[in-house]
Design a protein that fits this description.
- The chain is an alpha+beta fold.
- The protein has 2 domains: 3-128; 222-397, Alpha-Beta Plaits (2-Layer Sandwich), CATH 3.30.70.
- It is 37% helix and 23% strand.
- It has 11 helices and 16 strands.
- Strands 10, 11, 12, 13, 14, 15 and 16 form a 7-stranded mixed sheet that branches. A 5-stranded antiparallel sheet has the order 2-3-1-4-5, covered by helices on one side. It has a two-stranded antiparallel ribbon with strand order 6-7.
- Helix 2 (23-33) packs across helix 4 (163-171), helix 7 (239-249) packs antiparallel against helix 8 (252-285) and helix 8 runs antiparallel to helix 9.
- The chain binds zinc ion.
């Protein structure tokens, strides 16, 4: 029996996060993006009695939801499905006012096995953009400066903010859900770590000096100012092509289960790589009571994380090795690549993520897209110091 599936995804997640000038606002956005399904929990049935439930085979991904019509959606013609999708995106927008949403829908028996190519003419698409301010001279929001201020908030300091910043504040700004998860991991290992107050404290949680081997076999020490951060953006190489190959190689009756298992394995690899990298960074930071890894967002195959600047190398190498290793243990060949942006902790975050995004694209292109690679740039100097992307294999040969 065919059913109607609807996938809705937040576009340009990092740009959405970085609307907020403060870590507090970005943490609220991380909380809003986690498990979008819950924002629709109290949605009333549609005019034809259609309700939507979470598709169980879809892995949990920040900023994305997969719904299936209940009953099957036979009562809906194509226009009826589109009307329902508009109702769903409108409901999401009430909870996340400033997001860009992309929705697509299709009919099939199995969400993953029957998922058509996005260009297939039977797939419906809809883009939902935040409304433009109606009154351009309205006072701008005290927090983001982008949208009109419409509501007072008392915390952390009183201010007049836009709808989106209000939603972020309501979602919680003291820590992101991913920071809480990491703190819980450390607790299970017997370490009580405090989540950082702000980015200044995070920068200060790094090591006080670096020790390098010099050419004559001795060591050179250099003290560090500890006011810089590294933001690391990592995602898998050619995930889409890998999924298509897996689907093509698997008999039709097993295809849905095989793709679902692979998607879960990739999500597990992200989680385990992040945990391992956070533990290594914590061990090297020299501040055992403070969490030194701040994850902002965790997608199906990607993460965006900030660590003290001096610790980006152990973080990135551990993550990339563990990601690949975890999947290899389960018989999958998939690597990831990283873009690292080092900057002062006061450097505008939206610029940091723009640079990271562009650098990751360039790193993958430079290395052919299949092998693990790292690109990094230091924005500290007036003329940013961009390094040629290198492969992970090259790094290990020169360690
Ligand atoms: Zn705002």
């Amino acid at each position: 029996m065919n059913r109607v599936f609807v996938e809705i995804e937040v576009q340009r997640t990092q740009a959405y996060l970085s609307r907020s000038l403060s870590l507090r606002g970005r943490r609220g956005a991380s909380a809003l993006l986690l498990d979008l399904h819950r924002h629709l929990a109290d949605l009333a049935p549609g005019p034809g009695g259609t309700t939507w439930r979470r598709e169980d085979s879809a892995p949990a991904i920040d900023g994305k939801l997969v719904l299936v019509a209940d009953p099957a959606g036979d009562e809906l013609d194509d226009a009826g499905v589109e009307a329902e999708v508009r109702r769903l995106t409108a409901a999401l927008r009430r909870r996340l006012p400033a997001v860009e949403l992309h929705a697509q829908w299709y009919r099939g028996r199995d969400h993953l096995a029957d998922r058509p190519d996005p260009d297939d003419p039977t797939v419906g698409h809809l883009v939902s953009l935040p409304p433009r301010p109606e009154w351009p001279l309205a006072r701008p929001c005290d927090r983001c400066g982008i949208d009109p201020a419409i509501v007072e908030v008392p915390r952390p300091e009183p201010g007049r903010v836009c709808r989106d910043c209000k939603a972020r504040e309501d979602a919680g700004g003291d820590s992101s859900p991913h920071e809480k998860d990491l703190a819980e991991t450390f607790r299970e290992l017997g370490h009580e770590v405090a989540i950082v107050r702000d980015l200044s404290q995070l920068a200060g949680a790094g090591p006080t000096e670096t020790v390098r081997r010099n050419g004559s076999g001795g060591t050179a020490r250099r003290s560090l100012k500890r006011n810089h951060l590294a933001t690391v953006f990592i995602d898998a190489n050619q995930l889409g092509a890998t999924v298509r190959r897996l689907a093509a190689e698997t008999p039709e009756t097993e295809r849905g289960a095989a793709v679902a298992a692979f998607s879960r394995a990739v999500a597990d690899a992200v989680a385990t790589a992040l945990e391992h990298a956070a533990i290594v960074v914590h061990d090297q930071a020299g501040t055992p009571d403070v969490a030194t890894t701040v994850p902002h967002v965790k997608g199906g195959d990607d993460v965006l994380v900030t660590v003290p600047a001096a610790l980006w190398v152990p973080f990135t190498l551990t993550y990339l090795d563990r990601f690949h290793g975890h999947l290899a243990e389960q018989g999958h060949a998939l690597t990831a690549s990283a873009a690292v942006v080092v900057a002062h902790h006061k450097h505008p975050f939206h610029h940091v993520v723009d640079v990271a995004d562009e650098l990751l694209t360039r790193t993958k292109a430079r290395l052919g897209g299949t092998s693990a690679g790292i690109g990094w740039v230091d924005l500290t100097d007036e003329r940013p110091d961009t390094h040629e992307p290198v492969s992970l294999d090259w790094v290990h040969e020169h360690e």
